[in-house]
Input
Amino acid sequence: MTRVPNPQNITQLLAEWREGNQSALDELYPLVYDELHRLARRYMSRERKGHTLQTTALINEAYVRLVGQKNVVWANRSHFFAISAQIMRRILIDHARRHAYAKRGGGAQQVSLDEAATVTPDQSGELIRLDEALKSLAEMDPRRSQVVELRYFGGLNNEEIAGVLNVSENTVTRDWNMARAWLYQQLTGSGAN
Amino acid sequence: MTPERWQQISRIFNRAISLDSEERPAFVADECGVDQSLRSEVEKLIAAHSNASAEKFIGGLAAEAAAPLLLNDDDFESSPKVLTEGQQVGTYYEILEALGAGGMGEVYLARDSRLGRTVALKVLTLEVSRDERRMQRFRQEAKVASSLNQSNILTVFEFGEVDGLTFLATEFIDGETLRDHLRANPLKLGEILDIGIQVLAALDAAHEAHIVHRDMKPENVMIRHRDHVVKVLDFGLAKVAEKLKKGEASEAATAFKTAPGTIVGTINYLSPEQAKSEEVDERTDIWSTGVMMYEMVAGKVPFSGATSSHTIVQILEKDPVPLSKLGNAPPELERIVEKAMAKSPDERYQTAKDMLIDLRSLKKRMDVEVEIQRTASYTTSIAANRTEEVDPRKRRVLLVALIGMAIVTAAIFGISKWRASRARSNAPVTPPAATAPVNERTLTYWITVQKFRDKKPFQDPFTIPGEMIFEEDYQIRLSFSSPQAGHLYILNEGPVATSAPEFNVVFPSSTANKGSSSIAAGQVTQIPEQSWLKFDAQQGTEKLWLIFSEDVVPELESLKEFAGRQTQGLITDPGRNKVVQDFLNTHSETKPNVEKGERLTTLKSSGKLLVHPIKLEHH
Output
C-alpha cells in the first residue's frame, strides 16, 4: 500500500516525457521498473513449466496496472512501450550479468543440477554480448538500435514500432534487416572490420 | 566508420536484399564500382543477413531467451498466490480488490467479517515468509504498532498465517502517501505545518513509549483523502530505545540496499548517526522529520548527490541551502527545520514534543495574524511617516499614539472566526460563552508587535500574550475580547512622574468604536485599528491601564474628548487627571487573576469591575 503509483501521475509523466522533459523519464523509470520486474517474476512462477514469458502481455498488464484502462491515450501507450522495452532490456541484462558472474564462480552459492540443465552459460553470455553490440550500433545509428530494442526486448511488432518511432512500417523492416545482419556479424565474428 | 559510409552501406544493402539472390552480386558490383572495401562490407552484410534469417537470429524475444535466468535468480521472491475478488482468506477476510504491490507483497482491500470493517491486507510473498529476519520485522511492526494507540499511527489489527499465506491486517487508509502528494501538488504553508504537526504527534506518542521509528520518509506517511488526517506507517524497523545496541543502528542504513524494488531515495532521510552506523535514538526521527519538512517547503530534499556515497557525504558535512533562498517560508519555520537538522543530535530538538510545540505555536501565530492582517495590513508606512509629527512638548509621555489616535476605530471581527481560532488554541482561555457568570469580569488580550528599522517594517509582525522588553523600534497593537458585554476604557501612564502621573486616553476616542466605551460579548477590539502604537526615546515602564466594567464608569466616560489628534490623548485638565489617578488608586488594589497562555492573556476578577495595568518595559 505504501507504493501504489498514482495513474494520474504516470499519465502526466508520460505526457511530459513525450514533450521532451527528460526528468519525467527519471521519475517514470523506477516506477515502471518495479512493476515490470514484479510482473516478470510472477509470470515466471505462474508459468514455471513452460519457461515462456509473454513480453507484450506482460507490458500490457503493467500498463493497465499503472495507468489504468480509463486513461489510455495512444501516444502515451507508445511511449510506455518504448520505456518498457528499455527497462526489459535492463532487467534481462542485469540478470544475465549476475548469472554469468555466478557461473564464473563469483557467486558463492551452489548451482543446482536442475538449474544447470535449464540455462547454459552461453545464453547469458550471448545476451550480454548482444547488449554490448547494440550499444555500439546506437552510437552509429540510434534508430536502428531502437528498432531492435523495441522488437527483441519490448516484444513490439513492426506496426507498433512504426507508431512509436513515427516512421513507416517499411522503414522499420529495412532497419531491422540491416541491424540484425550487422549484429549477427558482430556476434559471430564473421567479417570483422 | 563514418555515418556517411554507414548510410551508403545500408542503402546498397537494403536494395540488394530486396532482389532475388542471384541478381544481388551484379547489383552490388555495379553500385560499388571501384570501391572494393565498400563492396566487401556490403557482401559480408548480405551473407550475415542470410545466415541470421536461416538461424532465426534474435527471431524470438529476449525475455524468452532470458526466462530461465529470471526463474533461477536468487534475488527473486516467489510471488504469493494471486488472490481474486471474493476470495476468502482464512475465516474472516474476504478480498474486495487488489490495491497494489508493496515491497514485501501484494496489498488487498478486504472485509473483516467479524467486525464488518474494511481492512488493508498485506499478503507476504513466500520468500519473505520464509525469511526469518524479515518475518521478525513484521512481528515487530505488528507488536509495536498495536502497542501505540495514537490517531496518527496506522493501526495494525493482526499479523497471522492461514492456508499457507502470511498476512498483516491493518487499518485501511483511502489516501495517498506523502511522496505521491508531494509529486502532485506544491504544498501550502498551512498544510505543511498540519502534516508536520501530525507526524510529530505520532512520533511523540512513539517516543513516549520509548519506540524509535528509524525509517521516517514520505513513503511512510499517508494522508487520508477524506479529512487530510496523517498516518505514520511501517514501524517495521522501529526499535525500543533502551534496547538499541551498536550495530543495530546500521540496519536502517543497509535496508535500502537489501530491500528489492526499493525506490532510490530512501537514503536521503538518513540521519548522520545512521549514515555512520552509530547508535541512534529518538533524535534520529527528529532529523528525518526535519528533512521531510524541508522537502515539503523547498520541493526537494536537502541532501542529494549523484550516488549514495555523495549523498552520505552531504548528510554528514554539508549545510543545506537555507529555506529562505528556496521558498517563502517564514523565518521561524526555517529556524525550526534547521534545528531539527542539526548535525549533532545534541543540538537538535531533544524531543518530538519540543518540536511539536514550536510548530503548533507557529501555526497558531499564523492563524491569529491572518485575522489581524485581514483588517489592517496597509498601515505600517503611515505610522512610520507620522512619527516626526509628535509634539516635542509631549515627549515625556512615553507611549505616544500616532495618527491612529485620531482615527482609532474598533475593529470588529467575525465572531465565528475568533471562536475557531480560540478552539485551536491551547491557551488557557475561557471560550466566549453566553453563560458566563455576571458577578465576574473576564477580559482577554494579546499584543501584536512589529519591529521597524529605518522607519520601515523590519520583520513579520508577531504576537505575544503580554509583557516583554520592548526596544525603541518596536511598534505595537493591542487586541481585546471578552465573553461578556461591558464598557472598556484604556489609559496610558508614562514612566516618569515629576509631580503627578499624567494619563493619555487610548480608548475610547471620539472616533474609535464610534466614540462608545461599550463593547459586545465576543467582539474583538483592536487598538489602534489602522496604525501602531510607538515607543519614544525615553526608557522605562509604560503602564496601559485596562478598565473593564459591567456598567458605565462616570469618571472615565467623558475622557474621550481628550483623545483627539490635537492633544495626543493627553488629559490636559489637572483636575480631571486627578480624578483618574484617584479612581485607579482606589480600584487597582483588587487585582484580577492573570492567566497567561502561549498566545493570549486572560484576566478574571470577581465583581463588576476589572482594573489591570499592562506593564510595557522598553529600552
Observations:
- Chain A has a mean pLDDT of 71.
